Amino acid sequence: MTIDQGKIGRRTLLGLAAATAGAAVGLSALPTLAASPSTLDRIKESKRLRIGVTSAEPWFFKDPMTETWTGVGVAMGQRLAASLGATLVPVETTWANAVGALQADQIDLMFVLDPTEERRKAIDFPDAPLFYYAMGALVAGDSTIKTWSDIDKPGLRIGVTLGTSLDKNVTALVKQAAINRFSNNDETIAAFAAKRIDVAVQFHPALVVQQTRLRLGKVILPEPVEPVATSVGLRKEENPAFRDWLDGQLKTLYADGVPDQLFAGYLKSKNVDASKIPGLIKEAWR
């Protein structure tokens, strides 16, 4: 029915007003929907904190004999699980699949996941950083490479791990060199050892561990060197309780220097002297 606005009388207006008021009362009487349960509540109830793990020292390492996972990411997870009275449950994934695993509720957290703009569209991150590292390069022992422009040369082959922020960064930096992508850090280093690539680009803590194990080549921090903040990925939720709790935990752990302590402890377990290696607290870098 079409209403002729020029013929609306006082009675019609009063009727419309009454109907509108009645609708408003009806809406206000509806029950308020309860906020959805938080992942934090589920973890406390189930006593299980699930974290994603993948082959990437020093963050995650699976002992081939015992199949036990260790590493800085695992140790951080154990601390958080203990604070909740929960057991840590490692769930194997890959860097490329980590976001999907979080969305599918297969894992609760993914440590050492850089908060890129693309990832922020799909998952959540706390405000506080987990720690900091720098982009490094594993090159031949007699290499004269010092800068990123030295690396970006025709014919030079670079290896990165698929789906990482390094993949994105190197793709943006490099215009002339060839980029080879591998499913995990170990495959990237294996390609360097087999001389299928000339430069392996990873963050400096991972490269130090790999180079020490291989005793092949040398690790450099190509200039310009800038600290990169990494984080912990989690599912987007209407209820912010888990994110807020995680943010507070990370702030405390970073302020107490825990990332550096765990990193040094892991290096010691691999017989690596951490005293000459930049740590994970950028304020301590020299």
UniProtKB/TrEMBL annotation:
PROSITE patterns according to UniProt: TAT
Alphabetized InterPro entries for the sequence: Solute-binding_3/MltF_N, TAT_signal
Keywords, alphabetical: Plasmid, Signal
Presence of keyword Signal: yes
Start and end residues of each Solute-binding protein family 3/N-terminal domain: 48-270
Signal sequence, start to end: 1-34
Gene3D superfamilies per record: Periplasmic binding protein-like II
Protein's name in the database: Amino acid ABC transporter
